[in-house]
Amino acid sequence: MARKPEIETPDDIAQHLERLHADIATLSRTVARLASESAASAKSQAQEAASGAARKASDAGNEIYRDAATIGNDAIDIAQAASGQLEAQIARNPMMALLAALGVGFAAGLLSCRRA
Q1: Please, how many CA atoms are within 13 Å of residue 73, restricted to the half-sphere of its CB?
Q2: How many structural domains are present in the chain?
Q3: Which percentage of the chain shows pLDDT scores above 70?
Q4: I want to staple 12 with a disulfide (CB 3.0 to 4.6 A). Which of 2, 6, 8, 94 is the partner?
Q5: Taking a C-beta distance cutoff of 8 angstroms, is the pair 97, 90 a contact?
Q6: d(CA 23, CA 29)
Q7: 90: Cβ–Cβ under 8 A, 6 or more apart, which residues?
Q8: How far apart are CA 110 and CA 116, in angstroms?
Q9: Which of 4, 3, 20 is nearest to 12 (CA)?
Q10: What's the whole-model pTM score?
Q11: Which of 31, 49, 27 is nearest to 39 (CA)?
């Protein structure tokens, strides 16, 4: 047997509308909460990424500084070794060093006179 549709009264319709209104309000709060949680999560992830990038940049800067200090120290060692070798060469052959210095001075003098 087929059931007859019930005729709704204005009070029934009003109750349905109130329930619908309450459901929509609950749904709106849920969507707002989810959006807020998503925004907070995105903010947290962005902060973590920025913090990680800053750490990596700092580590890279420290590594570059250490490498530059090592290269600078190596350059000082090489210059000191060359200076020591030059001093030893001058001590072994002072006349040759004097003549070389005289020749360099004479050449520099000639070049400066021609420019004037």
Answers
A1: 6
A2: 1
A3: 93
A4: 8
A5: yes
A6: 10
A7: 97
A8: 10
A9: 20
A10: 0.49
A11: 31
